[in-house]
Amino acid sequence: MSSLRYVALFVLLSLSAGQFLPAQTQNLAERLGYPANAKLLIIHADDLGLAHSVDQASFAALDQRAVSSASIMVPCPWLSEVAAYAQTHPDADLGLHLTLTSEWKTYRWGPVASKDQVRGLLDPMGYLWPDVPPVVQNASPEEVEREIRAQVDAALRAGIKPTHLDSHMGTLFASPAFFAAYVKVAREYGVPFFAPRIPNGPKDLLDLAEKNGFLLDGVAMAGEGVKPEGWPAFYAGILRTLKPGVTEMIVHLGHDDAELQAIAVEHPAYGSAWRQRDFDVMTSPEFKKALEENHIILIGWKDLKKLL
Amino acid sequence: MSSLRYVALFVLLSLSAGQFLPAQTQNLAERLGYPANAKLLIIHADDLGLAHSVDQASFAALDQRAVSSASIMVPCPWLSEVAAYAQTHPDADLGLHLTLTSEWKTYRWGPVASKDQVRGLLDPMGYLWPDVPPVVQNASPEEVEREIRAQVDAALRAGIKPTHLDSHMGTLFASPAFFAAYVKVAREYGVPFFAPRIPNGPKDLLDLAEKNGFLLDGVAMAGEGVKPEGWPAFYAGILRTLKPGVTEMIVHLGHDDAELQAIAVEHPAYGSAWRQRDFDVMTSPEFKKALEENHIILIGWKDLKKLL
Prior knowledge:
The structure is a homodimer. Chain A is α/β, with parallel strands linked by helices. Helices cover about 40% and strands about 10% of the residues of chain A. In chain A, strands 1, 2, 3, 4, 5, 6 and 7 form a seven-stranded parallel beta sheet that branches.
């Protein structure tokens, strides 16, 4: 149910019963049936389909419930491996990591749409651009909409029933027109989309997101400031200081093996050892214990989907 | 120089000098400047670009001169890794393994051309077909020509200077019209193309190939009849019984690792262990010694290119 319709329903109910809180004062935790001060966490693995190494680590983490959700890069070569997993694991919480960039040196992919129809998304080799700025400079909102629609259609054809949409490297947050295309496609396919509440964020975009769904209360992710030896402490700190409401913690899982080392060559950030560290912390007994000690409830996008 | 022009030159020379053998009686070994009974061998690694595992094994074999030539699958994700190798190894004998199929289960690729322009090459997911018969059934010769031309153009854009063309899974040999497109594109780009002399083969195709280049005298490749433990003996037998002229021995190199095991899942033929066996035999001292003992001269497609 959309937020707009949700508000309308509450207005109607409060008129008749006279005792309902207005919808806008209910936070996301309450809307999900939890107390207002509940700490709800989505532990979300990005980049499924990128590499076999990433898939294996992510499937293992999903199977152990070390992560509660994940999203899939449809243009990447290993989509079929993920689609087979999705079919044998219908309860897995799997969304689409809409992908408009191809950022590694040795290993590249192109669009799902026909190249002629998305020329502005392509680098001179015909792959997706390696970074966000050239996408913003060269691609039209129409091309972006065409490509993300093609990615959703391809996932459906592959038998994947996406629980949500989000955006690889945040490309869809890099332009208001791209963001509008993202919201439009999510609405049409009836799936929630990732958008966090950002203090002092762009009001028009936040309003658009809230009108068409909801805003997550927070988002957390390891950045380049975290030193390898500080990995467990970084994540422990996130759990210890987690605020009430719904937070998404984004992790990048993989094994530090030959395939992933070659993909991430000369790129330690979000590289092979990085993804192994994320996997090691997420699947550690210490992390599991810290979740319990901090009274954190894991949820998935399937729970949030019910709010639409 | 084309065979036709080659014949014309010889006719001219024999008219003036009166002592040259007609061109058609010179075999390929003689045309390369060797005695007619010389045993010339191209040891050729297929499928570069398919996977990092394949690339690493093939680069190692090229570096050790354990193989004398190789060819690249342009639509595959690891093309950039191969292009970087080609640029740092300008003497490497690298052709294009023109690819019209995407045959593995977990790991797929699409065309290089815009999908709208090669619809007949695509399976329902938008990937290249998984096998040769649906390509023959669905793709027009025009689509085939468009795609292989796009593959050559993409390789050139990536900085690869192909020494030759050949055909992944032999798709371009599966229809006379496909074969004609292959010959046409090779001629236009001025590169030789793989075509073996086949006893009792289709005369019109063999004539077309010979008119536009030359026919190799033989081709050898491990098939499913070879048992794993019989691998060294199989290749030793090829060397021992090698006929005079130019033979291409096609090998499939790779390491038996997690990436390649996942790509070749449920497909032992040309799979991960298979490719490791090929690598192990090709790089073995026993194989090197057998080449010497049998007086076999390794050549590459660069040598053959000089005949055009």
